[in-house]
Specification:
Length: 524
């Protein structure tokens, strides 16, 4: 508080300021303290929020600060000096100025005390109540992507592999932000190599294919994962002197250019084959089946390798399964809390689909659990994380089975059963090679089916998260001459909610890699 400058000056005798202890003189009382103020104005500090000061008996007395009530987890009510009043400040922002605030840090739209329900505060066209569009985005923030959308086959397929590269087959497909990136293997001059090609949003392939592997040895694959900047590619390759297949990895630009030399992942006796890959949000995770523990006995185990965003290995290969009855064909998926792997093995006396969960660091969380029914010969497991659960699909390949259909089951985040194994297809033909694409509140399933004769066609259907059908089955591939021997579909979400489909086909008389699309539409 400022002190009044109106001093009442008095003359003090110099004798009182001397050293009394040395002279023997006593120091007398200097009298009352000088006053601080005469009026309230002498005490005013020009601040509003700490209250109005007053002058009482020539001393400045502080005022009572303004008390602002009503603060909550979502807003703070405090005194504002400029407004000279209590002012409410929300705990969250509306950065895109669409009238809806983002959730509080550490919460998500719909959660208690989230303080805001804008699921993308950087896009003014995304907010609660917005018009849902086919774009692969939850525009209205209800937790559902492309609400009520239909996925209709375009009927337009293009050959991805060049005519001279045959036979050839699919590896992987990913949308890289402006184009689809597809990988495939194919024979040229008697050797199999891995190739790459871009496909634009209309389904048109780039003019030239890119050869990824260049050594004079067979290579097959490659599975792909996109991390928002580069593609991780993993394949099996027998370039090493032992002649056995090993797992190799490289990072590719969206155009398919290698970002360094090919990196050998497995160093072991016997074959290392059938790799799969996923991006965890922080690193690439590779899984494959490996013969190193029982060379010559025909037994495989599932192994894994973590690779950082720059392509550096994190720890050595890690063994995930310890079952001597041949663990094969792994599929891997990831969510914020951990990793899950599905595979097939024969410990129960016949081939079955098994499942286990792990931490991001690959520490085992659950024991192995059989997912498929005991009376099946279950093969080709596929696994995805979809919103709040693991979803698995496979097909029954038992010769004695009354049907040869696709089956599915779901597990919660901890691996506990949610929906027991249920049949997904019911036609009279063989249904094989399922592929899953998670869509949040539903899942797209594509597969090969020979219901119309000796040749296979691709079919697709949308299911909810309990594997109950939401759409009719739709044929994805067909030519004017009928079925096309289409098998091994791989799916990727593309632009405007479309889905890219990479597959193997021999409609031109040779086995080659082809691509088609499912077009998204939302009924109005």
């Amino acid at each position: 508080m400022p002190v009044s400058t109106r001093w009442r000056l008095g003359l003090l005798p110099w004798a009182l300021l001397g050293c009394g202890a040395r002279t023997g003189l006593e120091v007398r009382d200097a009298g009352p303290l000088p006053p601080q103020c005469v009026t309230d104005q002498d005490c005013d500090d020009r601040a509003f929020c700490n209250g109005q000061e007053s002058c009482q008996e020539e001393r400045c007395v502080p005022g009572a600060p303004l008390v602002c009530l009503g603060s909550t987890a979502c807003s703070t009510v405090a005194c504002d000096e400029e407004a000279r009043a209590c002012r409410t400040t929300p705990a969250t922002e509306d950065r895109d100025r669409d009238g809806f605030r983002a959730p509080r840090a550490g919460t998500s739209p719909g959660a208690p005390d989230r303080c805001g329900d804008d699921c993308d505060d950087g896009d003014p066209e995304v907010h609660p109540g917005a018009v849902e569009r086919c774009n692969g985005v939850d525009d209205d923030c209800n937790g559902i992507i492309d609400d009520n959308a239909t996925l209709t086959p375009t009927g337009e397929a293009v050959r991805v592999s060049e005519a001279a590269v045959a036979p050839s087959g699919p590896g992987g497909v990913q949308w890289t932000g402006s184009r689809y990136g597809v990988s495939y293997w194919g024979y040229d001059s008697g050797r199999a190599h891995v190739y790459f090609r871009q496909i634009d949003r209309t389904g048109a392939p780039s003019a030239m294919q890119q050869q990824v592997t260049t050594t004079p040895n067979d290579a097959f694959g490659a599975a792909l994962a996109w991390n928002g900047r580069v593609l991780g590619a993993v394949w099996q390759d027998r370039r090493d002197p032992s002649g056995g297949y090993e797992i190799y990895f490289n990072r590719l630009t969206p155009e398919g250019e290698r970002l360094g030399p090919d990196q050998r992942i497995s160093f072991a006796r016997g074959f290392s084959v059938n790799p799969a890959i996923v991006w965890t949000g922080e690193e690439f995770l590779l899984v494959w089946q490996d013969e190193r523990d029982s060379v010559g006995e025909g037994g495989y185990e599932i192994y894994a390798q973590r690779v950082d965003a720059e392509g550096r290995l994190i720890q050595p290969n890690q063994r995930l399964t310890r079952e001597p009855s041949n663990s094969e064909a792994p599929s891997v998926a990831v969510h914020d809390g951990g990793v899950a792997v599905a595979w097939m093995d024969g410990r129960s006396g016949r081939r079955a689909v098994w499942f286990a969960t792990f931490t991001r660091g690959l520490t085992r969380v659950t024991v192995d659990r059989q997912v498929s029914p005991v009376n099946q010969s279950a093969v080709a497991p596929q696994l995805v994380w979809n919103r709040d659960r693991w979803m698995l699909a496979w097909y029954d390949d038992d010769e004695a089975s009354p049907d040869h259909e696709l089956w599915g089951a779901t597990r919660d985040a901890s691996g506990n059963p949610l929906v027991a194994a249920r049949r997904l297809t019911t036609d009279a033909g063989f249904s094989r090679y399922p592929s899953l694409l998670p869509l949040g509140d539903r899942v797209l399933v594509a597969w090969a089916d020979d219901r119309d004769g000796a040749q296979y066609s691709l079919w697709a259907r949308v299911f909810n998260t309990d594997f109950s059908p939401l759409s009719a089955e739709s044929r994805v591939t067909r030519t004017a001459m009928g079925p096309t021997a289409s098998v091994y579909p791989s799916l990727a979400r593309g632009p405007e909610g479309d889905v890219g489909v990479l597959f193997r086909d021999q409609r031109e008389g040779r086995i080659q890699a082809w691509f088609t699309r499912l077009r998204c539409a939302i009924p109005r």
